[in-house]
Design a protein that fits this description.
The complex is a heterodimer of chains A (114) and B (111). Chain A is 0% helix and 50% strand. Chain A has strands spanning 5-7, 10-13, 19-24, 31-37, 43-50, 53-57, 65-68, 75-79, 88-95, 104-105, 109-113. In chain A, strands 2, 4, 5, 6, 9, 10 and 11 form a seven-stranded mixed sheet that branches. In chain A, 35% of the residues are buried. Helix content of chain B is 0%, strand content 53%. Chain B has no helices and eleven strands. Chain B has strands at 4-5, 11-14, 19-25, 33-38, 45-50, 54-58, 61-66, 71-76, 85-92, 99-101, 105-110. In chain B, strands 2, 4, 5, 9, 10 and 11 form a six-stranded mixed sheet that branches. In chain B, strands 1-3-8-7-6 form a five-stranded antiparallel sheet, with no helix packed on it. The chains are: A mainly beta (114), B mainly beta (111). Chain A binds chain B through residues 31, 33, 35, 41-45, 48, 50, 55-56, 58, 91, 98-108, and chain B through 32, 34, 42-46, 49, 88, 90, 92, 95-104.
Chain lengths: 114, 111
Amino acid sequence: EPEVTQTPSHQVTQMGQEVILRCVPISNHLYFYWYRQILGQKVEFLVSFYNNEISEKSEIFDDQFSVERPDGSNFTLKIRSTKLEDSAMYFCASGSEGVNGELFFGEGSRLTVL
Amino acid sequence: QKEVEQNSGPLSVPEGAIASLNCTYSDRGSQSFFWYRQYSGKSPELIMFIYSNGDKEDGRFTAQLNKASQYVSLLIRDSQPSDSATYLCAGEMDSSYKLIFGSGTRLLVRP
């Protein structure tokens, strides 16, 4: 069964360092997303990506964040200068119909900022 | 601020009982609603989605949507200990590009 894969599963970094989280969405999907979940809190929308551009982003997704689909298969989230409050589980998701159909979530990348 | 509200629980039911999980939403224009199950430390897993008023059944699960009351529910029949998890309600709000999640209801099914 096709699945969304994410790497790394866990990353520990120092405050101020750059982090790149990687995702391989399901191959025939067109809509890509990043969500995050701070421990014990809600799953929060960060950004959606369609047709090689950002379609929507949340207030959380400020200038420190960027997304890229560099090679037609990978979908990356970069945090330029991490802060303590960026510590969370980051989920990549993909879908074939946007939010009108099923979103498939990856297993997540846990980011710990020290 | 568009919101999805859920009781955090825990909701405790005995094995074999019906578990009823509820969710309300603030955006009257929302069209699509989703129930996800999340085990501790894991990613959300879709159980059901519903677009139309009324009931939608899939195996032991029934989703109910009442757009007039802005209310979504999930019934789990014949609850099993393996159903113990946090159940997330999510709605499409404002656009077709994002889901807004509730904070989740923790369900405990007692053997």
